[in-house]
């Protein structure tokens, strides 16, 4: 199941794999592929006008799927397209397969015209639909997920009320928190940690980045907002996120 415009990135990944040093493991190459494919889904989602939660759902579907199958068993970009298609249904922002295929085609071939509705196009469309069914079966039709987004929104509102409004307006804590949260979906860390812990950790990192201090009480602010989170949880999420940024540098 490989479309005509999907061969290019797959071939590039193969060439990159052959160029890597002997010290790079198979796991490292798989993580790089994950990162690149998730970036593809995010950029495709933006061009399709999808909201942040459906795009996050597409990434989780992708990570959950490859938890259960071999990383080499299926073409990753085809799976990604099917995840975007399925996520639109799950989050009630349905997107046509034709639009997904054309946007994906432009992602890899920026100067080309939309694909003709010929046999090759319909074969690719059928592959996307068939892959969607495969994903559903592999995940036992469990395709609804709880994301950190609602928690982060709540935590931001709570923290904002504790900070001097002038200090808050001078620092983009909210924007940075949302950007960090989005970045979490580039890797499998988004399914390894509880959504509440991811939300707390991204806000914690954003506050520390800008030196924003909160009033000191008997408990840390993050303990007040999320009773079951510990400093170890926060550190684990931040560590995974920093590893993703290190991976980003290697993927450029």
UniProtKB/TrEMBL annotation:
Residues 1-27 are annotated as: Disordered. Residues 39-137 form the Cyclin-like domain. The keyword Cytoplasm does not apply. Coiled coil: none annotated. The keyword Iron-sulfur does not apply. Pfam families: Cyclin_N. Keywords: Cyclin. GO terms for biological process: regulation of transcription by RNA polymerase II. It comes from the Eukaryota. GO terms for molecular function: cyclin-dependent protein serine/threonine kinase regulator activity. May be an activating cyclin for the cyclin-associated kinase CDK10. Belongs to the cyclin family. Cyclin-like FAM58 subfamily. This is Cyclin-Q.
């Amino acid at each position: 199941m490989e479309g005509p415009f999907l061969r290019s990135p797959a071939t590039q990944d193969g060439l990159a794999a052959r160029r890597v040093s002997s010290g790079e493991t198979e796991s490292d190459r798989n993580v790089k592929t994950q990162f690149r494919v998730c970036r593809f889904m995010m950029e495709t989602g933006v061009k399709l006008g999808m909201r942040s939660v459906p795009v996050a759902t597409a990434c989780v579907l992708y990570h959950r799927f490859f938890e259960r199958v071999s990383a080499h068993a299926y073409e990753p970009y085809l799976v990604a397209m099917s995840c975007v298609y399925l996520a639109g249904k799950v989050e009630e922002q349905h997107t046509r397969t034709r639009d997904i295929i054309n946007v994906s085609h432009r992602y890899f071939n920026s100067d080309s015209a939309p694909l003709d509705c010929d046999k090759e196009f319909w074969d690719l469309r059928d592959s996307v639909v068939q892959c969607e069914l495969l994903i559903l079966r592999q995940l036992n039709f469990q395709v609804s997920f709880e994301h950190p987004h609602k928690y982060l929104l709540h935590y931001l509102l709570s923290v904002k009320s504790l900070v001097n409004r002038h200090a808050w307006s001078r620092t983009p804590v909210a924007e940075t928190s949302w950007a960090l949260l989005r970045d979490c979906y580039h890797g499998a860390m988004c399914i390894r940690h509880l959504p509440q812990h991811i939300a707390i950790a991204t806000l914690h990192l954003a506050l520390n980045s800008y030196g924003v201090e909160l009033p000191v009480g008997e408990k840390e602010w993050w303990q007040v907002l999320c009773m079951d989170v510990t400093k170890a949880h926060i550190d684990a999420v931040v560590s995974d996120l920093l590893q993703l940024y290190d991976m980003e540098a290697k993927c450029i």
